[in-house]
């Protein structure tokens, strides 16, 4: 019988109201046997993910066939899951790309246009080499959009992938959007390498056309100034990226759940005192033996000290049974950084107001 096939085609392309009217017409034409056969065929197509449709069409279909979890022998929640899968497959249709872009924006894929949604969907479907994937993921918005698309389509590691989605592509984009994965670290290093090349080129042009190096480094020779400027431009993005990757993995390592029945790792327990001792030793050694370290020693020690403090806070929260996400220690670190600067700013404003008040009093006396 072709009626059930026509029904699925209409469910894929018809607005909800005309589809409900169409279903009512079919119900009046079907005999009991025809209705039972159509019900079995449609249910089979839904289970095989060969019946894309909107949630409204799925609800009308369920009502027309009188389906519920108990009435048609399905597992609890299976009808809802089948409707969600049908809706996710329906969003992959070319006619629904605009709606797919809206859903991606709602899931965190910022500024997703029609072309962006179509491009991300094509990237998930088409097998590509790892290098090509890395190059296409260089813009920061691309991994976020891919993660939003995978969330909309229900691409999860512990569940079967939707039809048409390549497993290798799904694995790559899941890793590219997770800062704790190796793929995300590779992306960060590749971006840092490109930034190093661009900054080195800009520094070389600045050295050749301006006197900014003489102004910033007046006491060094020409060769030293060139080496410092070019070396900083080339190494700063790479070293900063490596530091950021290290901090991410430190947070993940320290916030990993522990089994109470297993003895704690000595390395995790000794990480904090060893880090504190290393900061103290390195800071003292640099202060004693490195000439003029004040320009960079203070910011470095400040960063390391707050990192150790945030790590200690993670461990303390874990011992109290409160798991910590990575965003929380970063926010905590920024909050403490602001609080450490705030007293200096308040002190400066207080001294400024006292100076202004004293100056006004002297003007009145004169």
Automatic annotation (TrEMBL):
Keyword flag Transmembrane: yes
- The organism's place on the tree of life at top rank: Bacteria
Question: Which parts of the chain span the membrane according to its record?
Answer: 189-208, 228-247, 267-290, 296-316, 328-352
Alphabetized UniProt keyword annotations: Membrane, Transmembrane, Transmembrane helix
Q: What is this protein called?
A: Transmembrane protein
Species of origin: Stenotrophomonas sepilia
The record lists the lineage as: Bacteria, Pseudomonadati, Pseudomonadota, Gammaproteobacteria, Lysobacterales
